[in-house]
UniProtKB/TrEMBL annotation:
This is Glutamate--tRNA ligase. A motif ('HIGH' region) lies at residues 11-21. It is found in: Cytoplasm. Residues 5-311 form the Glutamyl/glutaminyl-tRNA synthetase class Ib catalytic domain. Keywords: Aminoacyl-tRNA synthetase, ATP-binding, Cytoplasm, Ligase, Nucleotide-binding, Protein biosynthesis. It catalyses: tRNA(Glu) + L-glutamate + ATP = L-glutamyl-tRNA(Glu) + AMP + diphosphate. It comes from Kerstersia gyiorum. One of its GO terms (biological process) is glutamyl-tRNA aminoacylation. Signal peptide: none annotated. ATP binds at residue 246. PANTHER family: GLUTAMATE--TRNA LIGASE (PTHR43311), GLUTAMATE--TRNA LIGASE, MITOCHONDRIAL-RELATED (PTHR43311:SF2).
Amino acid sequence: MTTPVRTRFAPSPTGFLHLGGARTALFSWAYARHHGGTFVLRVEDTDLERSTPEAVQAILDGMRWLQLDADEGPFYQMQRMDRYREVLAGMLAAGTAYYCYSSPEEVEAMREAARAQGLKPRYDGTWRPEPGKTLPPVPEGRKPVIRFRNPQEGETSWNDMVKGPIRFANTELDDLIIARPDGTPTYNFCVVVDDLDMNITHVIRGDDHVNNTPRQINILKALGGTVPEYGHLPMILGPDGEKLSKRHGAVSVMEYDRDGYLPEAMINYLARLGWSHGDDELFTREQFVEWFDPSHLSRSAAQWDPKKLNWVNAHYIKQTPDAELAKLVAPRIAARGGKADADNLEAVIALLKDRAETLEQLADGAMLFCGPHEPAPAELAQEHLGDDNRALLRDFAALLADTPWQREALNAQVKAFIKERGLKMPQLAIPLRVAVVGRTQTPSIDAVLELLGRDTVLGRLAQL
Ligand code: GLU
């Protein structure tokens, strides 16, 4: 029987859930779901200076919005301190870790000496116990760090799920500090204990952690653990090829919520950032889970493409039923001072949804129908509502008074009227738009008239 798959997402709560983090979470989640496994959420909050409760909340909010539900957790590293201490004590007893009394200045001098010999700067092993070696006397009053006794022979290697085989000579790896002088465990150590205790089988994370992996593997082996599979995802670059950052616009997932992107679009778009399934660009969450296979993860960096995200979002907007979209857009209309509970909101959405790339654009468009009337600016009125056009519109208004108020009939009336007067469509439609909604461009004029309603349209034309 194969071991059940267990993956984890292990964010450090030092800011919002950013796009790279969300993609890592998505791939870890999808891998677990694909294999019917378990997805664990672990909050790596041991950096007390940079971790904040707001950031924890922002990460939880982002995951909830994307519906990346964890099966276990959130676990918090700060709540596991006793366990880390227990493992440290066990390692000291087993001789896989040791106290090191070298001061930071001494360690710096060792590194300097190595550099001077053209070697990699490193701790020189002064306090590393060896058979037959006498350790120096313990300096009085100095609190020791605890170092991991890293193997000095051989190499540490793994077959990365994304990058293929990776190897490090063990001589390259220092005896890592795993506890500080005050006894608190360090980052790489906590990760190992957690991955071990949580029985993680597949670690999917950003490739900024590649250098940590051999150290973590060695500690894990020293603890008698089974080494998980590792997959390191290349980073996401901005459209200009630089590392994605605030400079490129929104990097927090929740900003995309605010800006009117649908979570399903975000999932679809993020899934394609560094992963592919043939030429498929649009797929459901379920399809993604079914297809997700790390052998199709790309080894090269992915590039953030806001235009493509908009295209994907537009697709999901079109796919979403009008009633559901209306619910999503209503608060955005209210925020603009519009009437969010208008009876015809669904019909308004139906008219606009094919052209909207975001819910914000949809709300902007809907304000034509749900917002207060904005009369034409003087310039537009001057250009389009001169005496002749006002007379024309009055005649047209008289015709409308007897027209059944639905799109086809209104359209027929518009056509009949321009034919009779020998006009081209814009010669009626533009002044009509300016008179009724104060602008020259709107969706199809018959649809606009229908949705505004007879009273509104005739009322506004009567004021000419
Ligand atoms: N906490 C780390 C980060 O936010 C991730 C560690 C890991 O996945 O092993 O980058």
